[in-house]
Design a protein that fits this description.
The protein is α/β, with parallel strands linked by helices. The protein has seven helices and eleven strands. It has an eight-stranded mixed beta sheet with strand order 4-5-7-6-8-9-10-11, sandwiched between helices.
């Protein structure tokens, strides 16, 4: 990928990308006086919309000088890479009435309703297939949402990166009702992920449980560099540090291959 004055070269074809097109919208939640902050960014002729569900407490940072949230989470810092691959982006942040999007909240009816509202807004705004992409705690959110909303048929697919796997954690992906998921699912994990609640060997147990999914795959990735800090945080292999472009490329290729 080459970048020059806002011009991304994709498969030899130039696509204009203007950072100023991005905007933060505060959507009303069903909970009284609560808002759902979502960063929306339009990509011309997008093949799909990705609703990005960050991990941790759910923060996405402030809108920086480049017109993009400046958080360190893998999905936040890779958002522009996903956009350059031909996707609209809806980056969902922590709701205004929460200090921390903990595990119980991420499987709650209230959170799933927030996700539903963002999906509906994305469909109205762009009218292309909508995929949920979660990382770390965001995989708990994404999995719970596609299970709960499966009969509404508004979500085209699910991508799980650095999935929460530990059985002691509420909403751990392998323990959810994966056999009820009826859309394509991609599981992406780093072989060197050292987070004790996101164990690589346990991530491999997710795909065999997707008995109703029409297409599914597991990608165990290697690579990256300069891992630092807490192994459960974004700047370690848990967050695909130093190989963001490669991880995004793998995800983009798989999603595009599922295009209706």
């Amino acid at each position: 990928m080459r970048i020059a004055i806002g011009l991304f070269i994709l498969a030899g074809c130039p696509v204009l990308w203007a950072a100023q097109d991005g905007q933060l919208q505060r959507m009303a939640s069903a909970r009284p006086d609560a808002q759902i902050p979502v960063f929306f960014s339009t990509t011309p002729n997008a093949v799909a919309t990705l609703i990005l569900l960050p991990g941790g407490a759910g923060g996405i940072g402030r809108i920086g000088a480049e017109g993009w949230p400046d958080g360190s989470n893998f999905l936040v810092r890779s958002g522009q890479l996903f956009a350059a691959q031909g996707f609209n982006i809806a980056l969902m942040a922590r709701p205004s009435d929460m200090n921390d999007m903990d595990y119980p909240f991420r499987v709650s009816a209230a959170h799933i309703d927030d996700v539903r509202k963002v999906v509906q807004q994305a469909k109205e705004r762009w009218n292309v297939p909508v995929w949920l992409v979660g990382t770390s705690r965001g995989t708990v959110s994404g999995t719970a949402a596609v299970i709960a909303l499966r009969d509404e048929r508004q979500i085209a697919g699910l991508v799980l990166t650095s999935s929460v796997t530990a059985g002691r954690v509420t909403g751990a992906v392998p323990g959810q009702a994966l056999d009820k998921i009826n859309i394509p699912v991609l599981v992406v994990h780093h072989n060197q992920d050292a987070c004790k609640i996101c164990v690589p060997s346990q991530a491999k147990t997710i795909e065999p449980k997707l008995s109703s999914s029409p297409a599914h795959a597991t990608l165990m990735l290697d690579g990256g560099e300069n891992a630092s800090g807490d192994p459960c945080e974004a700047l370690h292999y848990h967050g695909f540090i130093g190989m963001e472009a490669q991880a995004v490329q793998h995800i983009a290729d798989w999603v595009k291959a599922r295009k209706p």
